[in-house]
From TrEMBL:
GO molecular function, a single term: oxidoreductase activity
CDD domains linked to this entry: MDR_like_2
Protein name as annotated: NADPH:quinone reductase-like Zn-dependent oxidoreductase
Pfam families: ADH_N (PF08240), ADH_zinc_N_2 (PF13602)
InterPro entries: ADH-like_N, ER, GroES-like_sf, NAD(P)-bd_dom_sf, Quin_OxRdtase/zeta-crystal_CS, YIM1/Zinc_Alcohol_DH_Fams
UniProt keyword list: Oxidoreductase
Positions of the Enoyl reductase (ER) domain: 10-328
Claim: Oxidoreductase is one of the keywords in the record: yes
Length: 343
């Protein structure tokens, strides 16, 4: 089957022929229609997680999927052939940039009835990240204040909407050109990062969601109220992450050292820092689907491109400037190759 993969870390994405997926007893075989591209894909290509999540080559990239069920394992009970589904596979079984992928049924949900396949393909990773940061970890609620960095990005556009749905006052950083969009999504205040310094403005936030890391994360600790929490999705990883993933002792020590500075600073300020590496969850996606169909969350897709454009589209993520998600679609390419319409 057709797929985009790398043959070694830091190598270009190549279009190659891959074997058909092996479908386990609890797996759902999905004919891929749309794939949302993420910064995570580029980080994996660069080998940033090689010691934590070692992969074999050739490695098919892709962490978001929306498509149609074409087969199910013998123990699958929640999905049937013909269902429209979406999800984020387990990191060790990623590979959605392919014609088909086998995914554990526990990592899938039915596509919301109110959106397209391309929109569904944009959602899983960013929506689950927002949910786990704000609901599972942050326990954000009515009357609280949250600062969401990079509000116009894939995670930011969903996190703003979810935070507003939860009843929080939402402040975000972004370019001034995105102010109108972000206000329409629910942001109460949009800070233009080019002309304003968020750390010098009134803060007292209960929660900060940081997707930038580095100095931006450390400065974010200063705007939290005492007892507040900064959740970082760009790192550095913390000891809790190492324990949860059962990493070897030496690697746990190295990871603890990476985050020592930011954790010490957080303690001095009377706040907390947590690293979030999003986990797959069909159950959470099903709850997100309900919010989408209720109108509380809408996907924000900046560009939809054909499957052929995947390498250039992935490379463009490092240049920035795209509002929302970039999505590549496969149905048109599949139809062109077979000469038949695609159901």
């Amino acid at each position: 089957m057709d797929a985009f993969a790398i043959t070694a870390y830091r190598q270009p994405l190549e279009r190659i022929d891959m074997p058909e997926p092996v479908v386990g007893s609890r797996d759902v075989l999905v004919a891929v229609s749309a794939v949302g591209l993420n910064q995570l894909d580029e980080k994996i290509r660069e080998g940033e997680f090689a010691r934590i999540l070692p992969h074999r080559f050739p490695l098919v990239l892709g962490n978001d999927v929306a498509g149609t069920v074409v087969a199910v394992g013998e123990a699958v009970g929640g999905f049937a052939v013909g269902d429209a589904v979406y999800g984020r596979p387990d990191p060790m079984r990623m590979g959605t940039l392919a014609e088909r992928i086998a995914v554990d049924e526990r990592e899938l949900a039915h596509v919301p009835a109110s959106i397209t396949m391309a929109e569904a393909g944009s959602l899983p990773l960013v929506a689950l990240t927002a949910w786990q940061a704000l609901v599972e970890r942050g326990r954000l609620g009515a009357g609280q204040r949250v600062l969401i960095h990079a509000g116009a990005g894939g995670v930011g556009t969903i996190a703003i909407q979810l935070a507003k749905h939860l009843g929080a006052t939402v402040v975000t950083t972004a370019s001034a050109r995105d102010t109108e969009l972000l206000r329409s999504l629910g942001a109460d205040v949009v800070i233009d990062y080019r002309t304003e310094d968020f750390a010098e403005l009134p803060g007292d936030y209960d929660l900060v969601l940081d997707s930038l890391g580095g100095e931006n994360l450390e400065r974010s600790l200063r705007v939290l109220r005492p007892g507040g929490t900064a959740i970082g999705i760009a790192g550095p990883p913390d000891p809790a992450f190492a324990r949860e993933h059962g990493l070897p002792r030496l690697l746990r020590v190295a990871i603890a050292a990476l985050s020592l500075r930011v954790r010490r600073r957080a303690r001095r300020l009377g706040v907390r820092y947590e690293f979030l590496f999003m986990h797959a969850s069909g159950e959470q996606l099903a709850r997100i689907s309900e919010l989408v169909d209720a109108g509380a969350i809408r996907p924000v897709v900046g560009r939809v491109l054909p499957f052929d454009a995947t390498p250039d589209a992935l490379a463009s993520l490092t240049r920035g400037g795209t509002t929302g998600k970039i999505v590549v679609t496969l149905d048109e390419a599949r139809q062109h190759r077979t000469g038949r319409s695609v159901a």
